[in-house]
Amino acid sequence: MEFFTQQLVNGITLGSLYALLAIGYSMVYGVIGLLNFAQGEVYMIGAFIGLFVLQWLGGPGGLSVPVVLALVLMFAAAALGSGVLGVLIERVAFRPLRDSSRMAPLITALGVSIFLQNSVLLLLGPDIRNYESASYIPVTSGIHAGPLRISLVRILVIVTAVALMILLTLFVKRTNLGRAMRSVSHDREAAAMMGVDIDRTIMSAFFIGSLLAGVAGVMAGLVFGRVFQLMGFVAGLKAFTGAVIGGIGSIPGAMLGGMLVGLAESFTSAYISSTFQNVIVFCVLIVFMLLRPRGLFGKPEIGKV
Amino acid sequence: MSIGVDQWVETADSRRVEPDGWWGRGSNWWGSIPPWGRLGIVLGLAVFVPLFASDFVVRVGVNALLLALLAVGLNVSVGWAGLLDLGFIAFYGFGAYAFAILSSDQLGIDLPTLVAVPLVVVATGLLGVLLGLPSRRLSGDYLAIVTLFFSQIFLELALNVDRLGVDLTGGPNGIAGVTPFHLFGMRFSSPASYFYLFLTVLTLVVIALYFLERSRTGRAWQAIHDDALAAEIMTVPINRLKLVAFASGAAIAGLAGSMFASFQLGVYPLNFQVQFLIVVYAALILGGSGSLSGAVLGGVVVAVMLDLLRDPGQASAAFYGVIAVTLIAKIRPWKRLGAIVGGAVVLGSVVNAIATSLWPGAFEGDAVSTGPLASFLDSWIVVPTDPVTPGNWAYCALVACVLALPLVHGWKRDALVVPTLYLAAFVWETRLVGEPSITRQLLLGALLVVMMLGRPQGLIGKARVERV
Amino acid sequence: MPRNLLELREVSISFGTLTVVDALDLEVEEGEIVSLIGPNGAGKTTVFNAITGVYKPDSGAISLDGQSIVGLPPHQIATMGVARTFQSIRLFQNMSVRENVMVAGYGRTTARPWQSIFRTRTARREEREEREHAEELLSFFGQRLVGYRFDQPAYNLSYANRRRLEIARAMAARPRILLLDEPAAGMNPTETQEIAALTSRLRDEKGFTVLVIEHDMHVVEGVSDRVVALDHGAKIAEGSFDHVATHPAVVEAYLGKGAAATK
């Protein structure tokens, strides 16, 4: 039983990460109808930014500021840095190709993704770095309630993720910018004619999506420790899985889908096989896409012919 | 004037404009040669390569032919049918592993080449159909990611299937000791023999695809690429044709895989990672997606360039050469070009003078490049004794400059090119030359971006008009 | 006794809560030219989409020469004998004029990929026949789309020529019935007259049955054997042009309630 709850907690933690990443995919897909291949790299760079802030503050060994402040700074720096990076990516790879074929921006984003991965490799070297969160966030503290044991780190991650998701939902529903994004995702031309600044709206979607990815990167570092330049690739694929399962373009769908993928991965790894966990998760996605391509919350496509 | 007689049409010949410039005239002349003639010329030139070149060069040639074959195969689904297939490497790997399994001690089977290769090709084709099945209802982006999943699944299986009991693939160590091709009593072992074999295979495949392009199948694929729904309403069974596209590309990749396994005498999982997928895509995009000769050209150019990168001297020659060619091709008139280059030289000398006088001893490093340029570079570029950190900062500055270039115009842009050139050379000497494997990926990624933004039709492809 | 080539019975299509086609009955006899008119949004193009298999009707029957075609994939319906043009032109931009027309011959040819590669007799013959057929169809439009135009990419064509090419492509599918969706849209008066003459020639010279969506009433008057008027997805009048043009429901649909009262 304790094993089960442990996997459940793992799954929810992992799912929170994937959910944040998946939201980024769905937001971008919502406003421009394309997938941001480089989202995984933004996540990876966010993790590195958080690590640098940590090191700058003296950590992991000897933090010169209180842990809470350090964490806040790490998250803030990663969020900001990743957000800016996302905007850059939009400007370089997506905006110039907005009216060309579907393939061109994808290939360009693929190129950007490879470029970012290898730039990090060049500048920072191939060594795997580690957040070593155990040295500043005590492993033993947390919740112990019967079979339920959640370490403080995971509580932090889950709570932060949930808070961000709630904030985002409010943002999309209540603010002008959120409304603008929804209108652009329905009909870009009509939105433009209604006075919506398309460039700014798309830029904001990239900013927010990448911001979330950067935060997720720091979370990954805190929970799993290891930070390396290929970490964005597989995480990105799985987060995309979640976004599609939830219905690409739907933000609540992305949250749910990401969570489901995290749980699936956790339980598969524990109960079936950890070697083949990726294979199984990917196969599940393929089957899912055959049965319900539009996902859980996606809208069936009605195009005018 | 009666209806149906069009004066504009009748006087068309008088308005024909001849393209000028050496590229335009050259490609015009090349295009006026009938296809058989062109093929003959290229083959005639290629045939002489192993006779006059060293073994090393011939090996490069073999790699080039292999990459050209892969690019041609990728062209079927990506260039013609417009299906973004990111799982292409999985077919290549599958073909290589399948051939290795059938021709080595792995499972104790060792089939004759003429049996093994067709088996592999057919099996890979079927795998292509399998991959294509979920593609039927998926649009471009979904398709791309699902095919990427497939390649990941393949890679993970190849790495780990031995844990399931049957050691099919040798795990992370791959399969060594593959029996090379043997046909009609001949054993293929020397690079030259492989060169001619691969040249023959590539030629046959290109000829076959040439006919296919001009058949109802080829037209149907292009129609699907341009407007799938309209194609379907015009009698084209789009789902079936998508499967055929996948299967054809897969079969070609499988063939290339078996050839690769034979040449390398072994297969290892590392050969089939995403890094290599990027290489194939870069080859196709550079040459011209949608064009058979573009795919071949791109494959040859990229393979040669990548092999050049292994030796610092040759790599630098290629690096500076490409920059020079791009400058000459893109910047007119000559005065402007001269000003920019002159400015870069001046900047370099000034920086050199200032740096060596302010921090004597800190710039004793030698430019890594060798050859005739070396002495010039030593005086132009400051090479710090410890190149890594300044090189890294310069790299960031270089990326910033390159990103800023499209944002400014006129003389400001020309002015920005000057430090960009200097930084490019600086970064090259201090960092990039020393890290060939990273550099090749960086350049390939950058190539994809630059081609898509600047010349999406590649070097010799045709510019496309897209339905918005 | 000419029979119904195309028959729609009680066809209904809704998108969510919006009923776009409302229990529509429609017949087209072989050899007829029928015009489908109605204000924008009346559901005319949706009817075309249903017939060609792009949309599946929520209820009702569609049959071609007695055979039901509901639920069949579009390419099969096309091969059975239904071809159309599009309101917003959907040519294969990057293919040449001739190639655009030849694509539609896919359903009538059989050459497999391997046969094309090895250039078997069948493949070569079919290719030659399709090519000649395409060039013959293109010459239907006079000198406009022939000669050097055969090899020009479709994106080079003028607007009027694109519309003509679309019709040529539809003809190449060797259909029994041609669905033309606003073939004269965006044309000047001369070109419009040409299209009207062309439509009659399609039936008289080539033997096609034609169902046309058209807004220009001069064209409708000139070519139609019969006119069907739709509004909000339902048929509101049917008959000869004069009968439909003066029908109060039709006048009201186009011009509003006040106009009908003055008739």
Provide a compact summary of the structure:
The complex is a heterotrimer of chains A (305), B (468) and C (263). Chain A has 305 residues and is mainly alpha-helical. Chain A has helices at 2-32, 39-56, 67-94, 103-124, 152-174, 176-186, 188-193, 198-224, 231-246, 251-272, 277-291, and strands at 129-130, 142-145, 148-151, 226-227.
Q: How would you write the strand order of the largest sheet of chain C?
A: 6-7-8-3-9-10
Task: Summarize the largest interface: chains and residue counts.
Answer: A-B, 48 and 54 residues
- Overall helicity of chain B: 55-70%
Overall average pLDDT of chain C: 91
Alpha-carbon Rg of chain C, integer: 19 Å
Q: Give the SSE string of chain C.
A: EEEHEEHEHHHHEHEHEEHHH
Please name the defining characteristics of this protein.
heterotrimer, B: 468 residues, mainly alpha, ABC transporter involved in vitamin B12 uptake, BtuC, 2 domains, two-stranded antiparallel ribbon, two-stranded antiparallel sheet, 19 helices, 70% helix, globular, C: 263 residues, alpha/beta, six-stranded mixed sheet, four-stranded antiparallel sheet, 11 helices
If you had to describe this structure to a student in words, what would you say it looks like?
The complex is a heterotrimer of chains A (305), B (468) and C (263). Chain A is mostly helical. Chain A has one domain. Chain A is 72% helix and 4% strand. Chain A has eleven helices and four strands. In chain A, the strands form two sheets. A two-stranded antiparallel ribbon of chain A has the order 1-4. In chain A, α1 packs parallel to α5, α9 runs parallel beside α11 and α10 crosses α11. Chain A is globular and about 55 Å long. Chain A starts with a helix and ends in a 14-residue tail after the last helix. Chain B has 468 residues and is mostly helical. Chain B has two domains: 276 residues, ABC transporter involved in vitamin B12 uptake, BtuC (Orthogonal Bundle), CATH 1.10.3470; 121 residues, no CATH class. Helices cover 70% and strands 2% of the residues of chain B. In chain B, the strands form two sheets. Chain B has a two-stranded antiparallel sheet. The model of chain C has no long low-confidence stretch (mean pLDDT 91). In chain C, strands 6-7-8-3-9-10 form a six-stranded mixed β-sheet, with helices on both faces. A four-stranded antiparallel β-sheet of chain C has the order 2-1-4-5, covered by helices on one side. Chain C contains eleven helices and ten strands. Chain C has 263 residues and is of the alpha/beta class. The chains are: A mainly alpha (305), B mainly alpha (468), C alpha/beta (263). Chains in contact: A-B, A-C, B-C. Chains A and B meet through α3, α4, α9 and α11 of A and α8, α12, α17 and α19 of B.
